[in-house]
Specification:
This protein has 410 residues and is an alpha/beta fold. 40% of the residues lie in helices and 14% in strands. The protein folds into two domains: 207 residues, Rossmann fold, CATH 3.40.50.2000; 163 residues, Rossmann fold (3-Layer(aba) Sandwich). Helix 10 links the parallel strand 9 and strand 10. The model has no long low-confidence stretch (mean pLDDT 94).
């Protein structure tokens, strides 16, 4: 039975993005589940997590990859010539990536006192540096669980996200090795496990599902001044990447207001998060007092808004499938507010909410979106005190007991 877990992770700095926050929540819940947890992290700063031993990994300097990486960056800065494309096509990875991987390898290879039952590699974005490092430590492969938070390499993404990276063949070989050498693999969603199994079949045999975790925290901060607490509020919190097109939502909201002029007095739509790709389009709504468009808020404020809004919105790309579990999904189910899901019919979020979940539409179906907002508005208007998601099963699915139950079966 697993008792001691060694976690190797890129970053546990909560300011390093949503991926780092998801990893922090998982580490905290591993500790709450009763496991003894030691974390080696490449955050480049001191981090303290209650109940967890955290060891910062130092960057190795004055070696070949470090020097070549610095020279490459200096050349790009001084001349504008960036050799990264040539380098990655030749060897698969940047010099900096390889130096980071070697730095992680050196730190954890020297670990000889903890004696873990499980070695868990976590990453974020397209890094997977900890996985690359573990490949070079064969004596730990029998205890290795490789957590795959997103498809990799990028040509393994579903449309419209898929594209071929520089060095994609080497990256594909790297991940094939991960799938073959790690005794266990873990995925935040069942659909992602099945999806990645198409490219790396061993994942279907070694894979388990560990969803993004509920992270319970008591917030004492104030709500932003723009938030209308007594109104019918709809919130999308998160970056609007180019495939997460908000056009259907905004058109649907406009149709809803035209059909329900009484809602002009007590309704608010909030889009909170990075939106550079749609900046020009969203500026056309800047003068609408019922629509709030704001750049990134701090993490705790975003969580508080999700807890206080009337409806949380999840937007996913137009596609035949969305195998991702959004990082904010646990926060949304914990907030116990109805979720307006704009996603493909085959998506992990829809699978969890249920095929008969009433508040779902395709991302571009503005007429249906308008009808769903109308239905939500009427329910809120008639019984605001009972306007909840009521899915304690999904909260439990993303919480400590289910996590422990899953790992204890290894």
């Amino acid at each position: 039975m697993v008792k001691k877990i060694l976690v190797v992770v890129d970053s546990i700095d909560e300011n390093a993005g949503s991926g780092a926050k998801a990893n922090i929540a998982l580490i905290i819940n591993l500790n709450k589940a009763g496991y003894i947890v030691k974390v080696y992290h490449y955050s480049r700063k001191e981090i303290v997590l209650e109940g967890v031993t955290c060891v910062g990994i130092a960057e190795q300097k004055w070696n070949l990859f470090f020097i070549l990486g610095r020279l490459q960056r200096l050349l790009a800065r001084w001349t504008g010539i960036n050799l990264n494309k040539v380098i990655e096509n030749a060897i698969g990875f940047s010099f900096t990536f390889l130096n980071d991987s070697n730095s992680i390898k050196k730190a954890i290879k020297d670990e000889n006192t903890f004696k873990p039952d499980l070695v868990l590699t976590l990453s974020q974005a397209a890094s997977f540096r900890p996985h690359h490092a573990l490949l070079k430590i064969p004596q730990w492969h029998s205890k290795w669980m490789a957590y795959v938070h997103d498809p990799y390499p990028f040509h393994c993404y579903p449309k419209p996200y898929n594209w071929y990276q520089d060095g994609y063949k080497q990256k594909e070989h790297f991940f094939y090795q991960v799938s073959e050498k790690a005794t266990y693999s873990a995925f935040p969603s069942l659909l992602l496990k099945e999806w990645m199994g198409q490219f790396f079949p061993t994942f279907t045999q070694t894979g388990i599902v560990i969803p993004h975790q509920v992270y319970r925290t008591h917030l004492t901060i104030e709500l932003p001044s723009f938030f209308r607490k007594d109104s019918f509020t709809l919130l999308h919190a998160g970056n609007l990447l180019s495939p997460r097109n908000p056009t259907g939502l905004l058109k649907g909201f406009d149709i809803f207001l035209n059909n329900h002029p009484e809602a002009l007095n007590d309704t608010q739509l909030m889009l909170i998060g990075g939106h550079d790709y749609y900046k020009q389009f969203l500026q056309t709504f800047a003068s609408n007092p019922l629509i709030v468009i704001a750049s990134q808020l701090d993490y705790n404020t975003s969580i508080l808004l999700q807890q206080q809004t009337s409806v949380n919105i999840i937007i996913e790309a137009k596609s035949t499938i969305s195998p991702f579990l959004p990082g904010k999904f646990p926060h949304c189910v914990q907030a116990d507010r109805p979720i307006l899901l704009l996603a493909p019919e085959k998506s992990e979020t829809k699978r969890l909410l249920g095929q008969d979940y009433p508040f779902w539409a395709e991302i571009d179906d503005s007429e249906k979106i308008a009808q769903l907002i109308s239905n939500l508005y009427q329910q809120w208007k008639n019984a605001p005190e009972n306007f909840n998601l009521n899915r304690s099963d999904l909260v439990a699915y993303c919480d400590v007991d289910e996590l422990k139950h899953t790992l204890d079966k290894l």
